[in-house]
C-alpha cells in the first residue's frame, strides 16, 4: 500500500494522512439540507466522500463516520411555514428521497446517519458552554457568536477580517465572505414559525451550531476528517471551527477535505439557466445510476467537474466495458495456468490503482490503471493466451476495484424500478433474463433453433440485447 496523502484546506497542503488513533478514522460529512431533492452538484460531494470512505476501509481502517441531515435551517423553516406543515412533515419526503438516491448510487450508509432536529439539547448545551466562556451575547431573543473573541477566526477560508466592525451581526444561515460578521447560534422565534422551548429561551438553532454539536457528540472533541463541498468552507465550516474550538480549546478537525464545484456543460448550474438536474431528472432521461456514479467519481475531487451529456455517455460506455470484462471472466473457458503472465500484471494494476487513490484520491489515475489492465487482458483473451489463473487474478483485481468504485454489478434496472423508473413493459428482472438465457442455451445445444430464436425475440421485445461470443458464451444488456 502506498502512503495516503490528502489535501488539507486548513494548511493548504497535501499531507500524509495519519489518524489520531491508529487504525480508526473519525469522519464527519455535512449532509444535505432536506428542503428539496439533492442535485448532481450535491451528489458530486457525496460520491467523493463515499469513494474516500470505501478507500479508507480498503486500507483496513475502521470508520466512525457521521453524516447529518440538516432538517432545520432558514429555508426549511420558511418553506414549512408556507406549506402549513410541521418541519418533520415537510422534510420527511426529501429525507426519504435522499436515502433512496444514495442507495441507487451505491453510496454506503455511514455508521451514524442523524438528524439535526433530534439533537436540539446538544446544541443548547454547546451554546451554554460558549456563553459561559463569553463567546456569545444576546440581542432581541437571539444569541450571537462574538467572532472578535476567537482570534483564529478565518484560518480555514483565509479571509481578511480587517475592517469588520465588532458587534455587527448577520442573521442568515448562508452569506458571502464580504459579510463576515457575528453569526446567530440561536434564533428568536418568528410569528408562525416552528420553535423549541429550551433552557436558553424559545427559538431554533442556527445552521452552523448543528454540525459542531452533532460531530462532537458522536466523534469527540477532535475529528480526523471533515468533508464537504468547497462552498461550505465559508461561512459554515469556519463557524464550526469557531464554535467547537471556542468551547473545547482543542483542535476541532485535523484534515479538512473539500470537493470542488460542479459545472454543467461549462456553466454554473442554476434553475434559471435551465441546466439544473437532480438524479431523478437524469433517470427520467434514461441514464443509469451506475453511469452517474461513474461520471461523478471519475474526476478527482479537487478538480472542477464539468458535467456534460457527452461525458455521461462515455461514463455509460466505460461501465459497460467493465461489466463486459467481468462477464468474460465469469463465462469464458480458459486453458489452465497463467500463459500470459497476468497474475503479475494484475498485481501491478492493483499497485497502480492504489498509488492513484493514495495520492489525494486521484480517481483518474486509478481508473486509468484499471482500463490499461482491461485492454491488455482483453487482447490476451482474444488471442487465446489467457489462462484460468490469469482469470482469477483479473477477477481479484476487479473485485478490489469495485470495492471503491462500485459500478460493476448489473442492477441498474432494478434500482430504477425501485425509484419508479424503467422502460415501459420491461418487467424482466436480471434473474428472469438469466433463466431465459439458460433455456435458450439448452435449446441451442439440442439444435432446436426455432425455440432459441423465439427466446431471443422475446428478450428483444423486452429491450434485452444478446451478444453471442466466439467461445460460446452469451452476454446480455438492456437497450
Ligand atoms: Zn455542516
* SS field, number of helical segments: 15
Structural class designation? alpha/beta
Strand content: 15-25%
Low-confidence stretches: none
Number of strands: 18
Mean pLDDT: 93
Helical residue percent band: 40-55%
Listed once per kind, the bound small molecules are:
zinc ion
Amino-to-carboxy terminus distance: 40 Å
Shape: elongated
Largest sheet: 6 strands, mixed
Q: Could you tell me the radius of gyration in angstroms?
A: 26 Å
Based on the model shown, name its key terms:
479 residues, alpha/beta, 6-stranded mixed beta sheet, 5-stranded parallel beta sheet, elongated, binds zinc ion
Structure characterization notes:
- There is one protein chain.
- With 479 residues, this protein is an alpha/beta fold.
- The protein contains 15 helices and 18 strands.
- The protein has helices spanning 40-58, 74-82, 87-104, 120-132, 207-219, 233-248, 279-284, 289-298, 309-331, 342-358, 363-382, 388-405, 412-418, 430-445, 449-461; strands at 5-8, 13-16, 24-29, 62-69, 112-115, 136-139, 142-145, 169-170, 182-187, 196-198, 201-205, 223-229, 253-259, 262-264, 267-268, 305-307, 464-468, 474-478.
- The strands form five sheets. Strands 6, 7, 8, 9, 10 and 11 form a six-stranded mixed beta sheet that branches. A five-stranded parallel beta sheet has the order 5-4-3-12-13. The protein has a three-stranded mixed beta sheet with strand order 15-14-16.
- A hairpin with a 2-residue loop joins strand 10 and strand 11.
- The longest helix has 23 residues, at 309-331.
- The relative contact order is 0.11.
- It binds zinc ion.
- Zinc ion binds next to loops.
